[in-house]
Please model this.
Amino acid sequence: MTRAQAHPHVGSTASHEAELVARLRAGDEQAFETLVDEYYPMMLSVARGYVRSRAVAEEVVQEAWLGVLKGLDRFEGRSSLKTWIMRILANIAISRGTREARSQPFSSFAVHDDEPAVDTDRFRDSSDGFPGHWRAYPRDWGTLPDGALLGKETLGVAMQAIEELPDSQRVVITMRDVAGCEAAEVCEALDVSEGNQRVLLHRARSKVRAALERHFDG
Amino acid sequence: MAESADHITCMEVVELVNDYLERTLPPDEVTVFEQHLNFCDGCDLYVEQLKRTVETVGEIREDDVPAEAKERLLSAFRDWKRS
Model:
């Protein structure tokens, strides 16, 4: 299940957002602080997908928040507040990334990369009676000690694996599985097609799984 | 998908798992996929691993807002309020 399904309060409802926007426009500083607490971490993770340096990413996030404040009076609620904020962030991150001469539109990332989700040598080849089937089964993670999968060490392995992903895959898995964004929100914020978003997520999740597998199999 | 409409290999399954979990596989492919899981323990275990991977990633907590960054933002908010 996704984080959004496991934690239904993640992601905002329309009425929650409308109330928050009204309070912001009225100058309610507490409301702004709540908003920052909720979105800043995800914004930083996403920004770091576009610009590698943490310092630059923090600047991008600051700039994005200024953009949010500037645009707040004109925000009409046609998209969710979250999507709108992420869109502002993405636009600033892209233009900053371009100036840093490193980023490309995400839509170009997924197309050329052909790596399989699992090493092909894990499967029987055509000389075998059952080509394409597992040589040896994956391990049953249900037999791991309680809490192994959600413990600090395992989280560290997953975080490291995410850190090593190509930028576009890292941003998508961060937004979807760490921050609990819906697929449509990610597509809209990053301006990628649903298909590309899914491919990126597939590749990212496959790689993290492989990293966890290496960790457990020693 | 494989040439035969009613059979897929494990190699194909691992490429389709994410679409399956995202519920974006067409219904007839879902049937073939689930039939495969019914008789293939290996792929059943793989799908479980992927689900648990997503759960694990969901437990990652991103860093809190750095104090200095938050101060700058609150200050920007107060400036915006005044203007």
Summary: Residues 1-11, 107-112 of chain A have pLDDT under 50 and may be disordered. The radius of gyration of chain A is 20 Å. Residues 24 and 142 of chain A are 47 Å apart (CA to CA). Residues 3-99 of chain A form a domain with the Rna Polymerase Sigma Factor; Chain: A fold (CATH 1.10.1740.10).
